[in-house]
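Final paragraph of the annual report: two paired records, presented back to back.
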Amino acid sequence: AIGTNSHMFASSFDGNGYKISNLKISGTQDAQGLFAYLSNGTIKNVSLENVDVSGGNTVGALVSVADGGSINNCNASGSVTGTGYQVGGLIGVDSSSANLQNCYANADVKGNERVGGLIGIAASTSTIKKCFATGNVTGSADKVGGLVGVAYNVSDIENCYATGNVSGTGNVGGLVGSGRNIADSYATGKVTGSGENVGGLAGQAYE
């Protein structure tokens, strides 16, 4: 993976519309993805085709941890699996104010808690616009969403959708497991939860 916790990727990567095919990352380590840590950098125009990415906590096909910066016009297809929490089809966790636009994931995503078809966790003042996810999302615990597992604080989700089936225990939603500030967005997949707070759009929507 590109970048470490002590030396994060803080530059710009432009895929120029080319595809990276058959990316395989396996193991039980945390922070698995093409980019392990992004810090206020830019990733754009990247397509990941037929990925098979697995790890422990914080797993995403493109980025495991995004600490600020921007990710534009990127996508991933295939499968993403984490044995723990913060697992997303494209990004594991957006930890601080990243800007995500025109991105999508067509990946089957499996994890424990805080699992999303596109992003496991969107934190702080993250912005997610014109994005979608079409894969099935499975969590063995709480906070599971077709697009985002958890959208904390004042994260904005606009003009987004999810079409995959979603299952978990509590706080399970077709678009967002738990979140706020959702506008002009929808979800069409089947949603299944064995606990409390299960909804077609959002499992839990708070002020």
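The closing record of the year follows.
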Amino acid sequence: TIDKGSNSGIKENMAVVDYNGLIGKVSKVSKNMSEIKLITTSDVNNKTSVVIQNGNEKIYGIINGYNNNNLEVTITSSNTEIEENLNVSTTGMGGIYPSGILVGKTVGVKSSKYDVGLIVLVKPFANFDNLRYISVLRRE
């Protein structure tokens, strides 16, 4: 919960970042307060489209979970080789998050539950245990 609301120009679905990267979006707004839904939530209605930049190749995926301090990004390609320390950022798809907001870096890969694609483990840039100063991004 933050101490800014519609009186300060906050609207639902605005992207929220800290100084390191993406943390979530505004989910509810009242006159003087707003609730933020973090990208770490397991809510099936709160999916974030991301892109992993692997040299000249762009690998698209969806943040589908958060486990052991890592985001879990599902990609449909199972034959793609993904190295560690690749940047992960928002795609701009879906109209919520602008493209290019940093999310984190890749730290590993594992098979998906039914061997359909891969789960890429991403260490988020934001420290979700210590969120003090955040910014709400206004889309014009």
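The mean pLDDT is 91. This concludes the annual technical report; the extension proposal builds directly on these records.
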